Amino acid sequence: MTDSEPYALAIGFRIDETEYLAASRTIVVAVHGDTDMHVVDELEARLSEVIDEGPALLVLDLSGVTFLDSMALGVLLSSLKRLGQTGGKLRVVTPRPEIRRIFEVTLLDRLFDIDSSRDEALAATTGRP
Asked: Which residue, of 21, 39, 48, 56, has the greatest Cβ tally within 10 A?
């Protein structure tokens, strides 16, 4: 890897918009890999693009995240605030206990709606089983 190559490539970071449910104005974005100071600009830009689309619900699937630092949490908080200003909701999917624990230790589990699976997140807002 050269200095000009993004650090994110070395740790497998990527963001996928995996689902767009037009009827409910729901967008599901899946994040994978280490989510830290090296990739927060990319994360912030992508979430900003998604929020600009005006979803009623953004499901942020962190199932594939292996690490989450305070800068990434700051991006998530900013996204939560922006969505709230337009009446949108944000749900976070995190089945991994070590990632969920980060939300608990920082007391952010009190601000974010956290689900163990994507289906659970979608069911919580659509009422589907």
From this structure: 39
Q: What is the pLDDT of residues 64-89, one digit of tens each?
A: 999 999 999 999 999 999 999 999 99
Q: Which residue has the tokens 């693009």?
A: 49
Pairing of strands 89-93, 57-68: parallel
Distance separating alpha carbons of residues 100 and 109, to the nearest angstrom: 8
On the question of pLDDT at 5 being above 80, the answer is no
Classify domain 7-126 by CATH number. 3.30.750.24
pLDDT over 60 at 40, yes or no = yes
| Alpha carbon distance 107, 11 (integer Å) | 27
Question: What is the CB neighbour count within 10 angstroms for residue 44?
Answer: 17
- Give the distance, in angstroms, between the CA of residue 120 and the centroid of all CA atoms in the same chain: 15
Q: Where are the domains of the chain?
A: 7-126
Q: pTM of the full predicted structure?
A: 0.86
Contact 47, 39 (CB under 8 A): no
